[in-house]
């Protein structure tokens, strides 16, 4: 989004520039024609050569640009994958292979960028050479004509000056064309994003009030997007209020999808989902979600302190409320494991960045007692921090 909007702003600037340059070319062309038709025709003859060079350049530039962007994307993807999978890679002693992979993509990106710079760097010298040759022809022919008194020295000088003004817009038109096109493509993407309609559409805005919690799936049909396989087909299930229900099934069977549909993260295509007898499509979405609590399969912590994470859904909660809530988790003894209690900084995504990249997030003590393997390394002693 950031680079596309930047490209789009370039298009706006370029368009204004291009318009004024086109006007300039037209005006100068008319002036030169009225001065001397023969010299003016020699000048215009260079036009097709410049346009041909520009067209060839456009093709080369587009290829070079696309390859450069692809190469950059590959390098970024490789780095990201390597870093997020570094633990697995080290475990399988694949550091050397990772290094070699990175060398390969890096080398490729280097070569592609070199080509790109060569293409972009050659256009101006090339066009300047062409216009230089044209200027010398004009100086020579015009000089001869001036000697033969066909034109005055003043007119001749006007041509020599006019040529540069005439060529500059054409060369810059040619060289910025690819940037212009790139910007147009970027603007299309920006507007497509702005115009995109959310898939989840509420048909009503009814106030929700306090829910009892009876959930009924009625012949629900659901897929993540058209063309993908159906996850739920004519699925019906009624869960009475207050009941605890475990849903068991193969991986990919659609257990999490049931919850995502209920949370209104995705739109279902057939049937309906009722909560306390009301279709969840008709409810005020914000009020509805306020009544739901979701613990995701992979826990997620926002950067900040433990306390900030506990009061994430209700920022106005008092310190004592936060503490009470935290102590309800397990037997609360995990709080004592935190170096600064509730004020401990969890680091980005809960990685505990204060002590480097090692994960030390202590799990609730209840979990540690039953499954010691899920208790990760504790923070190192204060002396080594
Ligand atoms: N965001 C998504 N976009 C597209 N398809 C998805 C998405 N999430 C899940 N799926 C697909 O939907 C099907 C059901 O997935 P779901 O996550 O509901 O399974 P699950 O029963 O929760 O599995 P698990 O036991 O592994 O958690 C799978 O085929 C899965 O590939
Ligand atoms: Mg799941």
What keyword list fits this structure?
385 residues, alpha+beta, ABC transporter transmembrane region fold, Rossmann fold, 3 domains, 4-stranded antiparallel β-sheet, 4 strands, elongated, binds adenosine-5'-triphosphate, binds magnesium ion
Q: Given the helix and strand composition, which structural class is it?
A: alpha+beta
- How many separate domains make up the residues? 3
Unreliable parts = 353-385
Second-tier CATH architecture of the largest domain: Up-down Bundle
Structure, described:
The protein is of the alpha+beta class and 385 residues long. The protein folds into three domains: 194 residues, ABC transporter type 1, transmembrane domain (ABC transporter transmembrane region fold), CATH 1.20.1560; 76 residues, P-loop containing nucleotide triphosphate hydrolases (Rossmann fold); 79 residues, no CATH class. It is 58% helix and 6% strand. The chain is built from eleven helices and four strands; from the N terminus they run H-H-H-H-H-E-E-H-E-E-H-H-H-H-H. A four-stranded antiparallel sheet has the order 2-1-3-4, with helices on one face. Helix 1 runs antiparallel to helix 2, helix 1 packs antiparallel against helix 5 and helix 4 packs antiparallel against helix 5. The two termini are 39 Å apart. Bound molecules: adenosine-5'-triphosphate and magnesium ion. Adenosine-5'-triphosphate (ATP) binds next to helix 6.
Write the layout of secondary structure elements.
Layout: H1 2-35, H2 37-84, H3 86-91, H4 95-147, H5 153-195, E1 215-222, E2 232-239, H6 255-262, E3 270-275, E4 278-279, H7 285-290, H8 306-310, H9 319-327, H10 334-337, H11 365-370
Antiparallel strand pairs: 1-2, 1-3, 3-4
This protein binds adenosine-5'-triphosphate and magnesium ion (MG).
């Amino acid at each position: 989004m950031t680079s596309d909007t930047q490209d789009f702003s370039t298009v706006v600037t370029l368009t204004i520039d291009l318009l004024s340059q086109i006007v300039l070319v037209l005006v100068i062309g008319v002036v030169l024609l009225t001065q001397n038709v023969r010299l003016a025709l020699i000048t215009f003859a260079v036009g097709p050569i410049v346009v041909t060079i520009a067209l060839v350049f456009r093709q080369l530039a587009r290829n070079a640009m696309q390859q450069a962007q692809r190469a950059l994307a590959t390098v970024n993807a490789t780095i990201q994958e390597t870093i997020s999978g570094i633990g697995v890679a080290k475990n399988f002693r694949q550091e050397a292979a990772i290094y070699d992979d990175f060398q390969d993509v890096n080398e490729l990106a280097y070569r592609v960028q070199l080509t790109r710079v060569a293409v972009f760097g050659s256009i101006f010298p090339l066009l300047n050479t062409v216009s230089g040759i044209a200027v010398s022809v004009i100086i020579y022919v015009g000089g001869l004509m001036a000697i033969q008194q066909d034109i005055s020295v003043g007119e001749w000088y006007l041509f020599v000056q006019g040529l540069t003004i005439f060529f500059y817009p054409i060369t810059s038109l040619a060289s910025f064309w690819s940037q212009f096109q790139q910007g147009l493509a970027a603007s299309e993407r920006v507007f497509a994003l702005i115009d995109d309609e959310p898939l989840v559409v509420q048909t009503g805005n009814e106030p929700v009030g306090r829910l009892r919690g009876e959930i009924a799936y009625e012949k629900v049909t659901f897929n993540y997007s058209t063309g993908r396989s159906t996850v739920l087909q004519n699925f019906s299930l009624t869960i009475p209020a207050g009941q605890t229900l475990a849903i068991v099934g193969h991986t990919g069977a659609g257990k999490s999808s049931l919850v995502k549909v209920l949370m209104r993260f995705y739109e279902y295509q057939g049937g309906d989902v009722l909560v306390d007898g009301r279709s969840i499509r008709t409810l005020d979405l914000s009020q509805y979600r306020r009544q739901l609590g979701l613990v995701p399969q992979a826990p997620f912590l926002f950067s900040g302190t433990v306390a900030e994470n506990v009061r994430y859904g209700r920022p106005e909660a008092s310190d004592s409320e936060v503490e009470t809530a935290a102590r309800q988790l397990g037997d609360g003894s995990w709080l004592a494991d935190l170096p600064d209690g509730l004020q401990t900084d969890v680091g980005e995504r809960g990685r505990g960045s204060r002590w480097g990249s090692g994960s030390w997030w202590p799990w609730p003590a209840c979990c540690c007692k039953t499954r010691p393997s899920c208790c990760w390394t504790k923070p190192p002693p204060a002396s080594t921090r």
